[in-house]
Design a protein that fits this description.
It is an enzyme of class 5 (isomerase). By secondary structure, the chain is an alpha+beta fold. About 40% of the residues lie in helices and about 15% in strands. The protein has seven helices and eight strands, in the order H-E-E-E-E-H-E-H-H-E-H-E-E-H-H. Helix 5 links the parallel strand 6 and strand 7. It starts with a helix and ends in a 12-residue tail after the last helix. The structure holds zinc ion (ZN).
Length: about 230
C-alpha cells in the first residue's frame, strides 16, 4: 500500500468510527447490530465495523479494512457479519461510496410486513424521490443479501431498501450520505406508521414528488457563492 492509500484509510477509519455514533444518537441500533462502511476511493477496499464490538468501544483503531470480496486486509478484529452484503454493493454499484445497515424499529416493522413505504410526505419526496421500496427475503452468508439490495435499488431513486423480514440497507456517494439516508428512512417510517394509525394518508401527485426531489437534490442547501461582478 502506498503512502497516499495509507493516509486515505487512516482518514476513513476516523470517519467510519465517528459515523457509528450517529446510529446510536438516532436510536437506529440495539446492542452491536448495525454497521457503516466506506469505500476507499480508487481502491478495491472498504473500511467497515468489526463484528460484535460494543458501540462504546468503536474507535478508528478498531475499524477493519477488507477487499471487495469481503476478505480481511488490515485490522485486529473479524469484520462485520454483513461484510459480504456491503462488498457486493460496492462491486455492483461503482458510484456508491458508503453503505449502512440497521434494524431501526419503524422501518424494520414495514420490512416485517413486506411493505414498501408509499410517499405521502414532502420530506420523503425530497430524500427518496418516491416510495422506499421493499426488497426480497435473503439469508445472511453469501451474496444473496447484496444481490437483493442491488436488484431493488439499481435504477431506483431511493437510497434505502427495506429487506423483507430483516431491516434497512442504505447507500450514498459517501458513508455520511448513507448514514443520513438511514436516519431519514427511520424518520419517514415512523411518521408513515403514525399516519396509517390515524387514518388514510393523502396521496401526492407524481409531478409534485418529482419537483420536490429535483429541488432538494439539485438546489437545496448551501450553493457556491458567485464571485463579485459575475
Ligand atoms: Zn441485519
Amino acid at each position: 500500500m502506498n503512502a497516499e492509500v495509507t493516509r486515505q484509510i487512516g482518514e476513513l477509519r476516523e470517519t467510519v468510527a465517528r459515523l457509528h455514533a450517529e446510529l446510536t444518537r438516532y436510536n437506529l441500533v440495539a446492542w452491536t447490530s448495525g454497521n457503516v462502511s466506506a469505500r476507499v476511493p480508487g481502491q478495491d477496499l472498504m473500511v467497515i465495523k468489526p463484528s460484535g464490538v460494543s458501540y462504546d468501544d468503536l474507535t478508528a483503531a478498531t475499524m477493519v479494512v477488507c477487499d471487495l470480496d469481503g476478505v480481511l486486509v488490515e485490522g485486529d478484529f473479524a469484520p462485520s457479519s454483513d461484510t459480504a452484503a456491503h462488498a457486493y454493493v460496492y462491486r455492483a454499484m461503482p458510484e456508491v461510496g458508503g453503505v449502512v445497515h440497521t434494524h431501526s424499529s419503524y422501518a424494520t416493522a414495514w420490512a416485517a410486513c413486506g411493505e414498501s413505504i408509499p410517499c405521502h410526505l414532502t420530506a420523503q419526496a425530497d430524500e427518496f424521490g418516491g416510495e422506499i421500496p421493499i426488497g426480497p427475503f435473503a439469508l445472511i452468508g453469501g451474496d444473496d443479501i447484496g444481490k437483493g439490495i442491488v436488484a431493488t435499488l439499481a435504477g431506483h431513486r431511493s437510497p434505502a431498501v427495506l429487506m423483507r423480514n430483516h431491516g434497512v440497507f442504505t447507500i450514498g456517494r459517501d458513508a455520511r450520505a448513507a448514514v443520513k439516508a438511514a436516519v431519514m428512512c427511520e424518520d419517514v417510517a415512523r411518521t408513515a406508521h403514525l399516519a396509517h394509525t390515524l387514518g388514510q394518508p393523502v396521496p401526492m401527485a407524481q409531478a409534485d414528488i418529482d419537483a420536490l426531489y429535483d429541488r432538494y437534490q439539485n438546489v437545496y442547501g448551501q450553493q457556491p457563492v458567485a464571485p463579485a461582478g459575475s
